[in-house]
Design brief:
Layout lengths: L1 E9 L8 E8 L4 E5 L6 H8 L5 E8 L2 E2 L5 H6 L1 E4 L8 E2 H5 L7 H10 L3 H6 L7 E2 L8 H13 L5 E5 L7 H14 L4 E5 L11 E6 L2 E6 L1 H6 L4 H9 L1
Parallel strand pairs: 3-10, 3-11, 6-9, 9-10
Antiparallel strand pairs: 1-2, 1-4, 4-5, 7-8, 11-12
Helix pairs in contact: 4-6, 6-7
Length: 239
């Protein structure tokens, strides 16, 4: 469960807030879509969850614990993120999947298989000991995103944040990523920051932000039933 209570976020104390007085209660296992026009504060909420901003007012509570009372490492170990630009390091496949070396090879292969990457990694010379070049440049953009999903399956998180994760991939790869998320992360609480509005149409509920404020919060069906809703206008604009 994630509760945002009167959440206000800014990039520095002297700068105006980017997110303003947002209050929502997200149930465990819910799939939440977050949308709004450019500059609405969508990705800033992600930074707040990971406590990466200097100015923070209000509360974020995860499973009854105020994150301001948590050390950063245990907090961030509870959260998995698939960013728009996936992060991979020069090193082996194994190191990139499991940098702390806590998992058996079978678990790594299972995560790769679930993420639809087993064949691609098998084709690399060396398999799990195969080389990943800096930035993962020897994998396609879509494969890098799937790699991040495999990595997320190996951490002790029950929260997955998709921060415009499919913005740079083609529609076919986007569909594959969505299928992996729906099947492998079905029991996770998922926040999807949407670039393509159609990726959040099957969410349980939608957060619509405008200039940092939460202006709509309901199921996609309810929001689409209102032709005057901002969400309806975003869907129409996407089509």
């Amino acid at each position: 469960e994630i509760v945002l209570k009167d959440l206000t976020l800014a990039y520095a104390h002297e700068l105006p807030p980017v997110v303003k007085d947002v209050t929502v209660n997200i149930k465990a296992g819910e799939k939440i879509g977050v949308c709004g026009r450019t500059g609405s504060g969508k990705s800033t909420i992600t930074l707040g969850l990971f406590r990466m901003l200097e100015h923070f007012e209000g509360q974020i509570v995860i499973d009854g614990i105020d994150i301001s009372q948590m050390s950063l490492r245990p907090l961030r170990s509870r959260l998995a993120i698939i960013p728009q630009d996936p992060i991979l390091f020069q090193g082996t496949v194994k190191f990139n999947l499991d940098p702390r070396g806590v998992h058996e090879d079978d678990a790594l292969w299972h995560a790769l298989e679930v993420a639809q990457l087993k064949n691609a990694i098998t084709a690399l010379s060396g398999g799990l000991e195969g080389a990943i070049v800096e930035g993962g440049e020897n994998l396609s953009v879509g494969q890098r995103q799937l790699f991040c999903l495999a990595r997320a399956l190996l951490v002790e998180s029950r929260v997955l944040v998709m921060d415009e994760a499919t913005a740079n991939v083609d529609l076919e790869t986007d569909k594959l990523i969505q299928e992996v998320v729906r099947s492998a992360f079905k029991d996770f609480t998922i926040l999807t920051i949407a670039h393509r509005i159609d990726t959040i149409l099957d969410s349980d509920r939608i957060m619509v932000l405008d200039q940092g404020r939460l202006i709509e919060w309901d199921s996609p069906e309810a929001l689409l039933a209102n032709e005057d809703s901002v969400f309806s206008s975003l869907v129409k604009a996407h089509k």
